[in-house]
Amino acid sequence: MSTSSVIGISSTRWGKVLQNPSAGALLLVGVLVISMSIAFPTFPSAINAGNVANQMVFVLLLALGMTVVLITGGIDLSVGSIMGLSAGVGAYSINSGAPLILGLLAAVGAGAVLGLANGLMITRLGLPDFIATLAMLGIARGLLFLWTNGVPFIGYMLPEYYVISGLERPFGFITVPIIIAAVAVLAIIFVLRKTSFGRHAYGVGSNPHAALLSGVPVDRVKITAYVISGLMAGLTGMLMAGRTTTVAPTMGLGYEIAAIAAAIIGGAALTGGRGHALGAVLGALVLSITANAINIAGVSSTWQQVVTGSVLLLAVVFDRASALLRERSTRSAGRLAVT
Amino acid sequence: MIRSKASDQQPSRRNLLSSAGLGLGALAGASLLSACSTVTPTGGAAAPAGGAGSAGTNNPAYDSAIKSLVNGRTVQLGWTPPILSEMFNQMEKAAFGRMAELEQTYGINWKWERSAPTGNFDAVEQQVSIVRGWTARKFDAVLVCTGANFATMQDVYRQASSSGTRVFQFNQPVELYDEEKINTVSNIGYDNRWQSGYLAGTFIAKTLGGKGKIIQIMGPSGSDWSKARQIGFEKALRENPGLEVVGSADGGYLRDKGLNAAQDLLTRNRDINAIYGENEDMALGASQAVDAAGLKQWDGQQGVVIIGADGLLSGMESIAAGKLTATVDVGSVDQGRSFIDAVFRSVVLGETVAKTIEVPTRVVTKDNVAAAKAYIEGAMRPAKSY
Questions:
Q1: How far is CA B207 from CA A154, A256, B273, B325, in A?
Q2: Each residue of A99-133: pLDDT tens digit?
Q3: Which of A62, A339, B5, B83 sits between 20 and 30 A of A56, alpha carbons compared?
Q4: Are residues B347 and B253 in the same domain?
Q5: Is the confidence at residue B15, as pLDDT, over 80?
Q6: Mean local confidence (pLDDT), B273-284
Q7: What is the DSSP track for A58-110?
Q8: A33: nearest Cα among A43, A23, A47
Q9: What is the pLDDT of residue B43?
Q10: Which CATH number fits domain A9-334: 3.30.70, 1.10.3470, 2.40.160, 1.10.287?
Q11: Would you put residue B344 in left (φ > 0), alpha (ψ -120 to 50) or beta?
Q12: Residues B282-311: pLDDT tens digits?
């Protein structure tokens, strides 16, 4: 459908840019980077860029899984807790003498299994996504507390783990977690665009009933989405365990909120059927740059939550505005076609 | 009473009161020695913390008189920390050690219930209902440490006391409130201002010769602990005008947030001399940031001084390994032993204990880490668990 003949803001070049669901987030990143660079000369440094990239990996991985779940019309409140429990499994395995690689796989695997449990609760028991994953949030966190008695796991840091978690940087700014995150982004792009799961996921999210009637295996799609989200949480926990060198039972507390915020900023919708992997990257970038800017600018900690909340609000308002623009241009294009 | 250097610097009125309170009576022998044994080795009849010792006083007549007063009584306790953590695990083990000693000497039976919120989203409400539940079940005494609003808790405590459950707080920053308005029998802890924040500030000043740039990783805004520690830290800054805070950020008492905050602050100020992490986890996160930035940590002559506060075994190990310059040990073991003593003497013996009981705290560095670590390790092996 061409919009070139439509008169008005939606036909200008700017209009087209604004119609992109990620325009708001992109604009925010731009404004933040430019204003911070003017005010603080150290902000645009290579060191700081490396810091931001390394800090955003964790939220990014969770946001990727969250985006997949949101696309299918679900929500995963348990990713922070799964991240903590998976990290505990990994640390415990290594401490009990498992080779490093097995310990790391155990962490990621634990995440996938917990994600599978989410998916089964939702599809087999018919629990609402919100309730099932809220229960998992409590169960996984509680298990970690009971298991550890509140005492963090320590002593599992083998020399290679420092490299894997990015604490040691043999290749400069490009750390192993950044490489892992990049691979994960490419994998999710591939899964969403090139596989039948990807096509079905959008269908299930937009209209589960219609999807079911047209023969889409809705339950399998939902379960797969939660397994992907759990797997991402396990991967995040594995990397975070290395970065912090201890697994405290509070690990990952509140990360589900950051993951949801990043996915939404990146253009995913709570109503399902929308979202993409690059959006999650953008969302994670917005959150990480905001946190970084707050720290560098020395904004008082009382204001931090206000600033982060406002950024989220701004991004979503932009998203709504661009959706309205899209709608208007589609409508006017339709009208032209009729007349 | 022998005090650690730490409390010598700021002996508060309440600290003196508290030692006088526990100092009366022969029983105090054991508790006083336990409170000081990081400084002076225990001797005589007092049992080393955590061993299968007894609380005996070398006064058989007194011991048997107390034993007949106790008369095999069973005391039901409820203990609720704000979260399960290494800190509170140390405290609980120390409490078990003291309970076992009292049980062995005086024949008292303890029933212990622990309940902690898991910290997800309704921690405060959970603790309120935990205490209400224990009150309804007619517990003899409950011990509380909470992040809940002051007024809310006073109401809960008032109801508990009026239905016969005695309330004690531990590790609670009561120094921020009017003592008369606190509806508890006693508050066993330390003064976050002068026994923690102030100590960290003066340690930095002393180590750096009174001059240097500091970055600060703070606790969550609005937290009473954070508020109180900051008062003390600021006093130290006022007394040492050569110290300058060049950046501060919120680390939420979490290691990963502390690490990120320190990393961000270091990009702007690479020429800093010290980092003050308001708790140990954030200080350890900052230590990783310092390493990652290629800066040198304090080696006794130069480098970045990093100090935290808590006194965890994992922190002690980091100090021994040169990954943390110092920490303020806020006396987890002594708090655990002291609150059991306070319960025993007020609930069981009917004595009056001080409203505020402060245990000694100390700055732990590489020089004295062996003693501080051994003290906690001893307490981690109580003769009996409850």
A1: 29, 41, 10, 10
A2: 999 999 999 999 999 999 999 999 999 999 999 99
A3: B83
A4: no
A5: no
A6: 94
A7: HHHHHHHHHHHHHHTT---TTHHHHHHHHHHHHHHHHHTT--HHHHHHHHHHH
A8: A43
A9: 33
A10: 1.10.3470
A11: alpha
A12: 999 999 999 888 899 999 899 999 999 999
The Cα–Cα gap between A98 and B98 comes to 38
Q: Please report how many Cα atoms fall inside a 13 Å half-sphere around the Cα of residue A155, on the Cβ side.
A: 11
ipTM of the complex as predicted: 0.74
Region A243-248: what's the mean pLDDT? 88
Q: Which of A329, A320, A314, A75 is nearest to A205 (CA)?
A: A75
Q: Please enumerate, as own/partner, the contacts of A307-314 that have beta carbons within 8 Å and a separation of 24 or more.
A: A311/A28, A311/A265, A311/A286, A311/A287, A312/A261, A312/A264, A312/A265, A314/A24, A314/A28
The reported pLDDT for the residue numbered A4 is: 43
Q: Domain of residue B72: give its range.
A: 5-190+332-360
Q: What is the per-residue pLDDT for A322? A: 76
Tokens coding B41: 């080795």
The span from the CA of A117 to the CA of A113, in Å, is: 6
Sequence-separated (6 or more) residues with CB below 8 Å from residue B123 = B82, B83, B117, B147
**B271 is a domain residue:** yes
How many angstroms separate the CA atoms of B378 and B367, rounded? 19
Residue B7 Cα, gap to closest chain A Cα (Å): 28
| Position B87, amino acid | M
Q: How many domains does chain B have?
A: 2
CA distance A301 to A307: 10
Which pLDDT value is given to residue B26?
Answer: 36
- Give the number of other Cβ atoms within 10 Å of residue A317's Cβ: 11
Q: How confident is the model at residue A17 (pLDDT cuts 50, 70, 90)?
A: low
- pLDDT above 50 for A229: yes
Q: Does B89 touch chain A (CB under 8 A)?
A: yes
> Which amino acid is it at B371?
A
Count of A-B CB contacts under 8 Å? 106
pLDDT class for B81, splitting at 50, 70, 90? very high
Chain A touched by B83 (CB under 8 Å): yes
Give the residue from B83, B250, B269 with the most A CB atoms within 10 Å of its CB, the best one to mutate.
B250
Residue A271's CB is within 10 A of a number of other CB atoms, namely 10
| Position B373 in a domain | no
Structure tokens given for B29: 């022998």
